[in-house]
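Work package 3, deliverable 3.1, input record:
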Amino acid sequence: MATVVEQPLAQRDYFTDQSILRDPYEYFEAIRATGPVARLDSGIVFVTGFDESVEVLRNVDDFSSVISTAGPVVPLPFTPQGSDISEQIEAHRQEMAPTELIVTYDGAAHSASRAIMNKLFVPARLKANEAFMHRLAAEVVAEQVAKGSCDIINEVATPYVTLVIADLLGVPPEDRQKFREVIDAGPPPGDMNAAAENQQSYSLMFMAKFFHEYLSERRANPREDVMTELANATFPDGSEAPLMEVVKLAMFLFAAGQDTSAKLIGNAMRFLVETPGLQAELRANPGRIAGFLEEVLRLEGSTKATFRLVKRDTRIGDMPVKAGDKVFVGLAAANRDPRRWDDPRDLRIGRDRIAQHVAFGRGAHVCVGAPLARVEVRVLFEELFAQTSDIALDEAVHGPAGASNLAYEPSYIIRGLEDLHIKLTPR
Ligand code: HEM
């Protein structure tokens, strides 16, 4: 019988090899063994170090976000020339980031749009919305508790986060389901099955027409909602934001947080059903739920990586990088860097300076929705604990904890389970 020789971990292709999905951290450690910044055979510069990741994310002068969604495997549409390719990037921006989302913007265009977004999720608005989140979570959870079991990701988390953002933005109830279906039908961001293609977001294009209508209507008839605020937004220089720009911002807000927040709920739930004593601790101390979620973001954040294109020759840590190099910023690897975190693989609620993790990125592009994600996920867990006396893995579906057949979404960006079936014992 022929022996199958497994390829060494560090030589596998992170972007297409689905054997890495179950434990990407093992792969990151294999790369980290060659240094916090490593150049792969493909030429991609792979950053696993915490300080080095922060360094890249903070440096918007030398690194461009234009490939932050497409990723480093899509070929550049030009041959980089010289030590500064800023002009080449601008000349080809449309080809590299065809849907032109804020997360791919650089420089003044980014600052102008970001200033509009920064005003949306202020604490007062989230506080006002928290009561709605509790009502909604209570309803969604009650329905599943009555059944006794559910798939927490697809039956609870996803509809819940969709309704939260839809309500906050002011998307009419009759359109919400339609959008959900289009998003569900599409591939995840960073689809491994189409790694080298510049993945167009069909769902965003589908939604654009609707958002265009909502925003035009809000310009004519203002209401008390985020959509109206977006419709009438002005740039910091006082000029009115073009309608198409606010359509893109609103759509991205609607879409960006859905997968990520829903998958975070699944990742947190996995810890709850697999870690002895954790549920009892959180049930007895609900004040610790927020700290638990912060630690889940560090250990199993739902965004594994983001990407940058080197604009000007520079260094990352000790490694010189050239204009045109593509950088993999391993957020999930940085969050387990042993130089930054003691016993990085352990779940420890109340870790020192936990809020410094990079699960939401850092610097100019740091996640706009982080405050919302934190509140909505906490509220859902509060409701789950309030309505149940025990939550357990559904072993009839997944097999025993530890040896379970849990499957992760085939994405090189998103870290999240395809589904997670649990049993709910009513309180
Ligand atoms: C657990 C949930 C979430 C995670 C892990 C997450 C993660 C991230 C990360 C890592 C970035 C930075 C990307 C980069 O630097 O290239 C980002 C940006 C962004 N996120 Fe989130 N996100 C989450 C939820 C949300 C939600 C709920 C919303 C919207 C309501 C949202 C909206 C955005 C936007 C608009 C940006 C782009 C910001 C910019 O480019 O200036 N995210 N997110």
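Strands lie at 37-39, 45-47, 63-64, 149-151, 306-310, 314-316, 319-321, 326-329, 388-393, 421-426.
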